[in-house]
UniProtKB/TrEMBL annotation:
InterPro entries: HET. It comes from the Eukaryota. This is Heterokaryon incompatibility domain-containing protein. Residues 378-388 have a biased composition (Polar residues). Residues 365-388 are annotated as: Disordered.
Length: 622
């Protein structure tokens, strides 16, 4: 390690434990900077004394002498950049050098003390400083424990600790990391990547190389390999030493790679992602020439080609200074037979809400005790249903926030070029609904719809039927109900509540026999009633107990009317959760689709058929 002697201004070299206490300079490079060759020539140092590249090093040496330090390190003159071997060693060591410095002087050449006539204050200029946009200065902000900021005139502005709140607002970096109360290594991979997502470097590979120390990675520098190859190598090295699956929590839509990210900017919106700290060890995942071998719980859909992988990380949602909600990060995957690639449509990541802070234990849905037989005339049906809705359970179960299974599945996540030859024709046919839905010449793509998911699988239940039939797209697991309530029902609703569309999904227990239209038989069936109200923007989900004697032609009207009578009044109070016997349905997560297909906004409906087993799992977790 080379250091500048602040008294003689000569460069001296030190090794290992012989390195003396030193100050370190952080700055942004200007058009003309001092070099190692120039600084070692005394005549050149004197002649260029007033040049900014030299002047700031002189000023840093003066500050160090005033702080009782004998040495200063500056990247421009302490590294011989004509030697590629030395440059590589320095870049791999730089985080440690900043971390071990007694003090770091941050020189902001574009922040001047404003004149009295200026409308700008120094903190406004501080926010706008170029120093916060450069790739290399991220590690220079994180590594040193003691940082002092200076203006162009070398007027002290404050320390990192004193300005931590402001710096957090500028950079998005965790305030604990800035104050030194939280180690950078505790932050998730996705969170650290997000800090670099809006930073730039002169050489394209440097946006990757500037992150080596932040992730504790050492690797060869290959200038000329391109930013994508460099960033891929960094991610592969991180996977070798970390079990943090948030490295997969990036926006696939901005990358044409179906496995790893192309650039830190793919993580721009992932600043709230944290390690999950689940009460179990994360199974190892490894990279090979076949792809990424991963062991994780899966959330299934109605499509045989589309699942959601539950990653071992959570996203925190903030309101002012408090965490208001926590969500699991789910990775949509396309493929089958445990071989998948990342999906780009209808969404690249889903944050599945599992913990509503401040709302736990709140009653959000009403539960019907009795379910009368529905039959006879329409008027008889409506009368019976009106009477049934007055019977409310005396006790209501609390919402179960996390419905996902704890059972892991071994899968391979690989590249498009490997998956498409295997299942391309079938996937194209099954998944085309993500691109085009035939809504007729006078209609438009729906604003909202439901995505149907089974966080614990379907067990012994099977899909039986739907109403309206044409509104369910099982191959993509989307349901866009378009049916409006009949006039007889709308008359019982409050005024201006006619902007409701609704539908019904019907499932049967396979052990109770198979449904055969036209035959009368006893089967166990259950209905999931879903409704949308465009006037309030609200939606609802309900479980309808439909265990009775039925025949095929009786599917549509009498089942859907029962749901209408239960929930259509007061849409602004509609619940997003229902629990009956051994079932749960929840619709608490909504997200925008990437390309507006098959609808502009999707509401994820989670259906659980084994509530008792779910509760046993949670009891074992304590």
């Amino acid at each position: 390690m080379r250091l500048i002697n602040v008294s003689s201004l000569q460069i001296e070299e030190f090794y290992g434990t012989d390195i003396p206490p030193y100050a370190i300079l952080s700055h942004t490079w200007e058009a003309t900077e001092a070099s190692f060759q120039q600084w070692t020539k005394r005549v050149t140092r004197i002649r260029k004394f007033k040049h900014l590249g030299f002047e700031k090093i002189y000023a840093a040496c003066k500050r160090a002498r005033g702080n009782g330090l004998g040495y200063v390190w500056a990247d421009t003159v302490c590294i011989d950049r004509t030697s590629s071997a030395e440059l590589s060693e320095a870049i791999n060591s730089m985080y440690a050098w900043y971390e071990n410095a007694q003090v770091c002087y941050v020189y902001l050449s574009d922040v001047r003390i404003p004149s009295r006539e200026s409308n700008l204050d120094v903190l406004t200029l501080f926010r706008r400083s170029r120093w916060f946009t450069r790739g290399w200065t991220l590690q220079e902000l994180l590594a040193p424990s003691n940082i002092v900021f200076y203006t162009r005139e070398w007027v002290q502005m404050g320390t990192k600790q004193a300005l931590a709140v402001l710096i957090r607002e500028i950079t998005g970096i965790d305030e604990g990391c800035l104050r030194g109360t939280r180690r950078v290594t505790v932050c998730s991979v996705a969170q650290r990547m997000s800090w670099a997502s809006r930073r730039v470097t002169t050489r394209e590979e440097d946006i990757t190389y500037s992150l080596l120390g932040i992730f504790g990675i050492s690797m060869p520098l290959l200038y000329g390999e391109g930013s994508q190859n460099a960033f891929r190598r960094l991610q592969e090295e991180i996977i070798k030493v970390s079990d943090d699956q948030s490295i997969l929590a990036f926006n696939t839509d901005s990358s044409d790679n179906t496995l790893l990210a192309h650039h830190p900017s793919d993580f721009a919106s992932q600043g709230g992602v944290r390690p999950s700290f689940a009460p179990k060890l994360t199974p190892p995942f490894t990279m090979s020439n076949a792809g990424l071998s991963l062991t994780t719980p899966l959330i299934y859909t109605m499509s045989p080609y589309w699942v959601l992988a539950v990653l071992n990380c959570v996203e925190l949602h903030w309101a002012q200074e408090d965490v208001r909600a926590r969500s699991i990060t789910c990775l949509p995957l396309l493929g089958r037979d445990k071989k998948f690639m990342r999906a780009r449509a209808p969404v690249t990541l889903i944050s599945l809400g599992v913990d509503l802070v401040g709302n736990q234990g709140t009653l959000r849905s009403k539960h019907i005790d009795s379910t009368p037989e529905v039959g006879g005339s329409d008027s008889d049906s409506n009368t019976a249903l009106a009477e049934s809705t007055s019977t409310i359970a005396k006790t209501t179960p609390l919402e179960i926030q996390d419905l996902t299974t704890r059972k892991d599945t071994d899968i391979l996540v690989t590249y498009f070029s490997r998956i498409y030859p295997l299942y391309g024709t079938e996937m194209d046919e099954a998944m085309k609904g993500f691109e085009v839905i035939d809504v007729g010449p006078s209609m438009k793509i729906p604003d909202r719809g439901f995505m149907i998911a089974f966080p614990r699988g379907m067990g012994s239940y099977r899909y039986l039927d739907s109403f309206p039939k044409g509104d369910l797209y099982p191959n993509i697991s989307f349901f866009m109900p378009s049916a409006t309530p009949p006039t007889s029902t709308r008359e019982k609703m409050e005024e201006n509540r006619g902007n409701v569309t609704r539908g019904l999904l019907v499932y049967s227990h396979e052990m109770a026999g198979r449904f055969k239209p036209g035959f009368l038989e006893e089967i166990e069936i259950v209905g999931i009633y879903l409704a949308l109200d465009s006037s309030t923007g609200n939606w609802t989900c309900r479980i309808l107990d439909l265990e009775r004697r039925i025949s095929g032609p009786d599917l549509e009207h009498k089942w859907i009317v029962k749901g209408d009578e239960m929930v259509l009044d007061k849409p602004e109070e509609w619940p997003h959760y229902d629990q009956q016997r051994n079932m749960v349905v929840a619709a608490r997560t909504r997200f925008e689709t990437t390309k507006g297909h098959p609808c502009k906004e999707a509401i994820m409906v989670e259906i659980v058929f084994d509530l008792k087993e779910l509760l046993k799992e949670r009891d074992l977790e304590g």
